[in-house]
Specification:
Elements (H helix, E strand, L loop, with lengths): L4 E4 L3 H12 L5 E4 L8 H4 L31 H14 L6 E2 L4 E7 L2 E6 L4 E4 L1 E4 L21 E4 L13 E5 L3 H10 L5 E5 L6 E2 L8 H9 L1 H17 L1 H4 L4 H18 L3 H6 L12 E2 L3 H5 L4 E4 L3 E5 L2 E4 L4 E3 L2 E4 L13 E3 L6 H4 L18 E3 L12 H20 L5 E4 L1 H15 L26 H7 L8 E4 L5 H6 L1
Parallel strand pairs: 1-2, 1-7, 2-3, 4-18, 7-19, 8-17, 9-10, 9-17, 10-13, 11-12
Antiparallel strand pairs: 4-5, 5-6, 14-15, 15-16, 20-21
Helix pairs in contact: 1-12, 5-6
Amino acid sequence: MSKRFAIIGAGMSGILTALKLKERGITDFVIYEKASRLGGTWRDNTYPGLSCDVPSHVYAYSFELKPDWTHRFSPGAEIQGYFEGVAKKYDLDRHFRFDSEIERAEYRGGRWHLSIKGGAADSVDFVIAATGVLHHPATPDIPGLGDFKGACFHSARWDHSVALEGKRVGIIGTGSTAIQIVPALVDRVGQLVLFQRTAQWVLPLANPPYSADEHAMYRASPEALQQSYDFWSARFVDTFARAVIGDQDELHKIEAACRSNLEENVHDPELRRRLTPDYRAACKRLIMSDIFYPAVQKPNVTLVTDGIERIEAAGVRTKDGVLHELDVLVLATGFDGHAFLRPIDVIGEGGLRLADAWADANEAYRSVAVPGFPNFYMLVGPNSPIGNFSVILISELQLAYVLQLVDLVLQGRCHAVAPSKAATQRFNTALREAMKGTVWVTGCRSWYLDRNGNPALWPWSFDRFRTEMQAPDLVDFDLVARETTPQAAASS
């Protein structure tokens, strides 16, 4: 009997899962997507200046490299086009179910029963959650936010119908998004006010365009394209990935580069002081830009570091009493990076709700599975290594691991697989201990930290992650020998 799969999410990881299932001859699967088209974060985010902060040749499936990226760091629309092209190439159209938000997933009778918003339902053997990390926009809790009379929107819900030319535009936030938006808008708007709560370390990486000759070379030579992929992968793993987990030499190099960028390119001493962070570089996600500092020093830009008191009809009033009058207010305030599957109501064995299992903290076995939830897997789940390198490679490694667990069922060795509680507890205990040596616990506030102040990242080397994803240790898993049904239980 063939097994049926449900993939939740039509972003990078969902598309990857679908094409890898097809590669294995599995065609009985459906990709449920709450939005009206594929793309995930690259569908949702369309703000001016949007680009990836991972080099283009790395931000692609390892088996589907693209020779003609326009820039070293690709613009968002180009990345969206890449995923659309991959989905078309692998003939995934018939598997998508758009505008189909999963509200509930319940494991009973040995299968997962899905409830879809609007009343539809499905029953499957496996669920692979590819819901992503950064897709629930975080709205700041600022008094009076609804009182503003101008246009106001989150950066992930950019309103392109709003004219910005010559307008007074305020941006709340100074993370990666805001630092991309500022250079893109500064020459379009009349005035730009950037409200900064926390200064950011900025690494001055240039974003040159690829030439026609380079495109021709990469098209003609798959080997050259592969070499570029390998080069950038190694560079990020050997620098950022090592620095954040305790390699002080690499961390000092990054800090020195960031500090030199600030000191050499911000000329006014007072502005430089206000743009200087009070925490270690890479404690927050590192910003990559060689155009932010020139943009923020333009005469029509104001950097505001006083706290926000409230939002009023005419603009933003800061705690020093100043009202900053605005026509447009952009909330570049990031996402809830700890929601994961929420608000889906996931119910495992014995009525165990994932919301209850995660009441204290989001904990998983090696980021991909949770005890009590058989045949239910996550890509880019809790404590995945999502620092400054390609999440695509992370997802590829995790999926290859997950499919080995799936094979146990497909080969008839068992009916269902889930990690044991003991193994999951051991893993998370070791993870918390290792986290003490990382840069993320050195004293900054970031979206990496959960509500308990613990970083939701991978505290070991990327090489260790790669090694651990090579093959599951079956000692750590509960293998259900046969389907558990009320009838079977009564006869046993």
